Amino acid sequence: MNTILEHDCYRDVILAFVKETHCTQRQIAQESGIHTSYFSRVMKLGADFSNEQLYAIGKVLGLYNWRLDYFLLLGDLSRSGLHSHKTYIKNKIDECRRMHSKVIDKLQGVCAPLSEENIATYYSSTLTARVHMLLTIPKFRFHVMMLQKKLRISEKLLGQELKKLEQLKIISREGGEIKVLKRSIHLEESHPASIDNHRNWRIETLHKLSHGEASHADFHLSATFSGNEKTKIQIKEILKQAIVESQKKVRDSQDLDDVFHIGIDLY
To answer: Which part of the chain is the DUF4423 domain (predicted)?
Structure first.
């Protein structure tokens, strides 16, 4: 959930998850082991969740590392009845926001949190993301067999990928019609699966380069430079801003007809 830093109340985080995933509060309560009537009471400001309950809810929401810490801080703030303690918690929340405001938090429309199990499933292969993104293009959504030709895969493998995306609740299929429920997925850079995801996409890039499948619009660059840590950090910020600006172009793009990939390394 990339927009979590925008929220000052844990209830708003839960409601945002419900809106993004089409999940229900009842489902969250049941998966968290909390009685549904008490869950409803808390959401109506009649009570507060304990730290243990919020932890369980956070795991259901797919929160981990600092995002889970932030979620728990919002719980501390809600429960606090002492002014000086509230101020202390607010300062910790502000510090967390300063530390973790990243590129992803500047992008628009990037959401769709996944559970730990679903993260492992989605990022096990780059093919899943490619099929997902191609389905955001009408011609592939309405003529699914075009995907098979585009990706050069068997009908069986395509069927497996579509079934996977449906099970992940990223797409739905009714009467042969495909609807994309989540147009964009983001994996937190600190997540353990991130390394495998980067590796898999680098392998895809090497495959494309070695097979000479170049387009005049493609761009590949490798450079080594001398400098210092300060210079490296400045370049990192330039690249991060370039991603933000690129996403604006993607968002405004019309007449979609293909899927592309960007991979950036600085080390």
So the answer is: 113-267
Using pLDDT thresholds of 50, 70 and 90, give the confidence band for residue 20: confident
Q: Which residues contact 38 (CB under 8 A, 6 or more apart)?
A: 29, 47
CATH number of the CATH domain containing 31: 1.10.260
Cβ-based neighbour number of residue 198 at 10 Å? 14
- Structural domain tally of the chain? 1
Q: At what angle do helices 126-134 and 193-210 cross, to 10 degrees?
A: 80
What the block records as the tokens of 207 is 């495959």
Print the SS3 string covering 7-39.
CCCHHHHHHHHHHHHCCCHHHHHHHHCCCHHHH
Instruction: Answer whether residue 103 shows pLDDT above 80.
Output: no
* Residue written as token pair 């719980």: 75
| Cα–Cα distance for residue pair 49/55, rounded to 1 Å | 10
Asked whether residue 224 is assigned to any structural domain, the reply reads no
Structural domain harbouring 49? 4-101
Rounded distance between C-alpha atoms, residue 1 and residue 13, angstroms: 9
Is 88 among the domain residues?
yes
Which pTM was predicted?
Answer: 0.62
Identify the residue whose tokens are 């502000």: 94
Rounded Cα distance, 76 and 85, in Å? 9
Which residue's entry shows tokens 């993004």? 20
Tell me the Ramachandran region of residue 109: left when phi exceeds 0, alpha when psi lies from -120 to 50, beta otherwise. Answer: left
**Residue 115 within a domain:** no
- Counting Cα atoms < 13 Å in the Cβ hemisphere of 180 gives 18
Helices (H) and strands (E) in the chain, counts: 14, 2
